[in-house]
Amino acid sequence: MLALCIQVKEILHQERSPYQDILVFESTNHGNVLVLDGIIQCTERDECAYQEVITHTPLNCHPNPKKVLVIGGGDGGVLREVVKHDVVEEVVLCEIDEAVIRVCQKYLPSMAVGFKHPKVRVHIGDGFKYMAENQATFDVIITDSSDAVGPAAVLYQVEYYQLLKASLAPQGIICNLVDSVWANEPLIRRVLTFLKDEYPSVGVATAYTPTYVTGQLSFIVASKQPNQNLAVPVRKWTQAQERRLCQYYGAEVHESSFIHPNFMRQLISECLSETSKVDHL
């Protein structure tokens, strides 16, 4: 068990929604902090690392991402990042808990600003059900979920990943949070082993977020394009654009996020080998 200590300056909001406990507090050093079911989701101080990597990595791996679907992401941070890409024409966000959106719009406005963009359409409801009932396809689907417990548990099941594939356009790409390799290696193994049979190109990117457990997060990126090197963006901003648009992400950070320590490289290699088998998700 690992613990992180953040000093609370003031409790700003607390409520129990139909799905989870929601807490927002002002901290002494990290700005406002969103906590769901007792687990820190983001802080104003370091949310940029998470939001930018989970968004710009898949979008810059796609040559023309016009339609984007975001599952979860009720804080609005991913929306904020998606609409920085001029090529995007439509973004649909599916958030099951309306209360998260409402609370973040009030207490985390720098993230929730994404909800105001004219390209954004919000659907309050289950993302799993949304994909099952809609025939629309998307160029990029980002799963910005909370941990694999509570209302987000279904987003880590085999059936969910099958729905993702069915909802992708021919050159489509997905990007999913899969926790920290230090904290949840079994989950990463299971998801990788399943996806290698569903997608011809699969990779793992990392971001360093100090206020998340272990300070590191892993994201699985998978493409329908055969032999795609996901570590190399197919679209790039200029350095001036990167400095203006991003605090954390850039083309070099994109490439370096796929460089891993030896034990993690071995884990990924084992999972993506032809002989690996998935037991269950």
TrEMBL record:
Instruction: Report the active site residues.
Output: 144
The UniProt GO MF terms for this protein read: spermidine synthase activity
Identify the EC number(s): 2.5.1.16
Q: Which domain of life is it from?
A: Eukaryota
Q: Name one GO biological process term.
A: spermidine biosynthetic process
Judged by the first EC level, this protein's enzyme class is: transferase
What CDD domains is this protein classified in? Answer: AdoMet_MTases
Q: What is one GO cellular-component annotation here? A: cytosol
> Which keywords accompany this UniProt record?
Polyamine biosynthesis, Transferase
Q: What Pfam families does its record include?
A: Spermine_synt_N (PF17284), Spermine_synth (PF01564)
Start and end of every PABS domain?
1-224
Gene3D superfamilies attached to this UniProt entry: Spermidine synthase, tetramerisation domain, Vaccinia Virus protein VP39
Q: Which HAMAP family did the record assign?
A: Spermidine_synth (MF_00198)
Spell out the family assignment given in the record's similarity comment.
Belongs to the spermidine/spermine synthase family.
Q: What is this protein called?
A: Putrescine aminopropyltransferase
